[in-house]
Design brief:
Layout lengths: L3 E3 L6 E3 H19 L9 E6 L2 E4 L16 E3 L4 E3 L8 H10 L4 E5 L2 H7 L21 E2 L7 H10 L5 E4 L3 E6 L2 H22 L11 H11 L7
Parallel strand pairs: 8-9
Antiparallel strand pairs: 1-2, 3-4, 3-7, 4-5, 5-6, 7-10, 9-10
Helix pairs in contact: 2-4, 3-5
């Protein structure tokens, strides 16, 4: 794509950084479908570039998105890029981008995580990787999709966390990058699957971690990975 490409319709030209971010966003959205975290056009992804939030458009299959479909809004929700209608979950994405130090947000309807959201108000501490999301994963109370009520419930569940479940709905995670937000979503779905599997064994109850054990794991996780 050229250094700047004039958007066909609303707003201004698409900058080179936004074009690269859009390409990465589309790849992440396609990955959620390929790895079974969403079905059809469910779920959505966003990434922030400066004061612009690029988001997946509403009702468009991810495999049909092209570089010319860039869809972006300002932090107040005004559309500044593209002609496609932004995702119906725009309030959810903007609530995170306005309040958290997040570069990207991934929302899915992952099966195991959604199942868990119907059973408990907090994911039991089945694995220490809960520490990678900031602590015990809360379930935001149900509200109609695409509403400010849902966004508010989600923000409360995300306090001190980088991921939560939405009751009878799905998952939300955020991160500094699209890769980090996606990895947190995949980890959350895995933990939910683990708990459902362990708790389904007749006559047995899974052992859970104590808050102290989780805190110890969190401390070790802070130094995990390669130092750059």
């Amino acid at each position: 794509m050229a250094e700047q490409k004039r958007d066909q319709g609303k707003g201004r030209s698409v900058r080179a950084e936004e074009a690269r971010a859009w390409e990465a966003l589309v790849a992440t959205a396609r990955r959620t479908a390929a790895e079974g975290l969403v079905v059809g056009t469910s779920g959505n992804v966003s990434v922030r570039v400066g004061d612009t939030v690029l988001v997946t458009p509403s009702g468009v299959p991810y495999d049909r998105l092209t570089p010319d479909d860039v869809t972006g809004v300002a932090l107040d929700g005004r559309q500044v890029l593209g002609t496609l209608v932004p995702t119906s979950e725009l309030p959810l994405h903007l609530a995170i981008h306005r309040t958290a130090d997040a570069g990207a947000v991934v929302h899915t309807h992952a099966v195991h995580a959604t199942a868990v959201s119907t059973l408990v108000t907090e994911l039991p501490l089945i694995h220490y990787m809960a520490g990678a999301l900031g602590g015990p994963v809360r379930v935001a109370p149900y509200a109609t999709y695409g509403t400010e009520e849902l966004a508010g419930n989600m923000l409360r569940a995300l306090e001190g966390r980088s991921g939560c479940l939405l009751q009878n709905h799905g998952t939300v995670t955020h991160g500094a990058t699209l890769d980090q937000a996606y990895d947190r979503t995949a980890q959350l779905e895995w933990m939910c699957r683990l708990w459902l599997t362990a708790s389904s064994v007749p006559g047995l109850t899974p052992s859970l971690l104590s808050p102290e054990q989780l805190a110890q794991a969190q401390e070790r996780l802070r130094g995990y990975g390669q130092r750059r």
